[in-house]
Design a protein that fits this description.
Length: 488
């Protein structure tokens, strides 16, 4: 689903303002003025009770854009510029990956059912008959749900012929597939349990108040660009995310300060070849099936919530891992920066010494805006001499990994793929069943985001448009050759 709304545009604007401040002569003043400039005295579009609360929320959003968790704030008088200088001094990003801006959280009411004024007070009163707890009462000819009796079963909503009863959810809790977000019993605001969180980013995209946000590594990367050793590793899903072609983006990245630009699709080719071999080995050894491992949110979900499925998850490194290892081999001192659509990649990067930083496409867009670089005006340049395959670039969309692996699986193998296109409560239950019960195939591709990486939480473009652009690129790309894989 494409999430273009004011809340998400606000997050992008703050990232762009923070990046622009980095390129100014007076970054401290520019950063400290962000809340005031975005909500001046005569502002009429305040989303809160007063302009001062709006400004406080904007300050916290800017903190997150500088990579600081709001929950760890110790001094409310500490200016944004002080956080900026701390960001310039840190050696590596500081966990966690997500933060909740409690001041921005609306403390939504607990998920409940409610009768609307569409109720006709009809003779049938099917809602009343369907309710197992006698929670339906009629007041002034309209249905009313007694909250002391209602158990939120939803039977009344299903029974109403006028669809006059609705379910009012808590968006972030509804979006979370693993129950990692819960309401604080005292404040009513949401908390993230990081022992359960898979960092899929669904909560971030669904919160209508943008109260949940990721901790950006943008300032860290901008600071390291000065070294002249930073290498941009661009995910296949970059296609269609920014104006202009991939060759023009290569030039734009070098104008930002990256010394080299590498397509991660080349690493995807390696992943496909190795995963194909691993699949053949596992199936020949009697394993029932193998699942993909390139989606870090899925891997986190298995580790934290479906441990019985762990033995079926591929041990093949991800495209990011192969790409970073290649960059590190060529230049041990390189600063490796993965640029993609995914927040969970930051968790994977924390576990991989070859990956220094992770940027989302949103952050890359903000950096280009801050540096006043127009991709459309850039000349075309090649990312690398070896052009990645059609299948490697196809990792960006659902079914892409399956297509890549099947392209190099031996022709006499019985390859039976299954696609799990998006992780939610239902698909997680299904995966949990397959850990002990029959699976309908022997190769399971799992994507946390419906549609694949082109629909990730850190994307900029409409997934449908991105898919159209990706197909054009795939048509121009060479097929994946079934090259022999070197021994590990």
């Amino acid at each position: 689903m494409h999430h273009d709304n004011k809340a998400n545009r606000l997050r992008k604007e703050i990232l762009a303002r923070a990046a622009r401040a980095f390129f100014t002569d007076q970054p401290d003043d520019s950063l400290n003025r962000i809340p005031i400039q975005m909500r001046p005295k005569d502002a009429r579009d305040s989303s809160r009770c007063c302009i001062y609360k709006d400004r406080a929320v904007l300050k916290y959003r800017t903190m997150a854009a500088l990579g600081f968790s709001v929950e760890k704030e110790e001094d409310e008088l500490k200016p944004i510029s002080a956080y900026y200088h701390e960001a310039l001094e840190r050696e590596e990003p500081v966990p966690p990956i997500l933060t909740v801006i409690d001041t921005a959280c609306s403390a939504c009411v607990t998920t409940q059912y409610s009768a609307t004024n569409a109720c006709k007070g009809c003779l049938a009163r099917s809602c009343e008959s369907a309710c197992p707890k006698d929670a339906i009462e009629f007041r002034d000819g309209k249905a009313w749900l007694n909250p002391d009796r209602c158990v939120n079963c939803g039977l009344c909503m299903k029974a109403c012929p006028y669809h006059a009863i609705i379910r009012i959810p808590i968006p972030c809790e509804e979006a979370c597939p693993v129950g990692a977000i819960t309401k604080d019993p005292v404040t009513g605001r949401e908390n993230i349990d990081h022992t359960k969180c898979t960092y899929c980013g669904k909560c971030l995209r669904e919160c209508p108040f943008a109260a949940i946000t990721d901790l950006s590594q943008m300032i860290d990367v901008l600071n390291h660009l000065k070294s002249g050793r930073a290498v941009a590793m661009v995910a296949p899903s970059i296609t269609g995310q920014l104006p202009g072609s991939l060759p023009r983006l290569v030039t734009a990245l070098k104008m930002l300060g990256f010394s080299e630009v590498v397509e991660v699709a080349g690493g995807a080719d390696e992943t496909a070849r190795h995963e194909s071999r691993e699949w053949v080995e596992k199936i020949s050894e009697g394993e029932r099936f193998l699942t993909t491992s390139c989606c870090p949110a899925y891997v986190e979900a298995v580790d934290k919530h479906i441990p019985a499925l762990g033995k079926y998850v591929s041990e093949t490194p991800t495209p990011m891992a192969y790409t970073a290892a290649g960059v590190r081999k060529n230049d041990p001192d390189a600063v490796t920066v993965f640029i993609g659509p995914c927040i969970a990649k930051r968790v994977e990067a924390q576990k991989n010494p070859d990956v220094d930083f992770v940027l989302t496409f949103e952050e890359l867009g903000a950096m280009l805006v801050g540096a006043d670089i127009d991709v459309l005006e850039c000349e075309e340049a090649a990312a690398q001499t070896a052009v990645p395959s059609r299948e490697g670039r196809g990792f960006a969309a659902s079914h892409g990994v399956t297509d890549a692996v099947s392209a190099v699986v031996p022709g006499n193998a019985l390859f039976e793929p299954v696609l799990v296109d998006g992780l939610d409560k239902k698909s997680l239950r299904q995966l949990n069943l397959w850990a002990t019960k029959p699976c309908p195939g022997n190769f399971v591709e799992v994507m946390s985001c419906e549609g694949g990486c082109i629909a990730g939480p850190g994307t900029l473009g409409n997934p449908k448009i991105a898919m159209r652009e990706l197909k054009k690129l795939l048509d121009e790309s060479p097929p994946l050759a079934a090259q022999p894989v070197a021994a590990e």
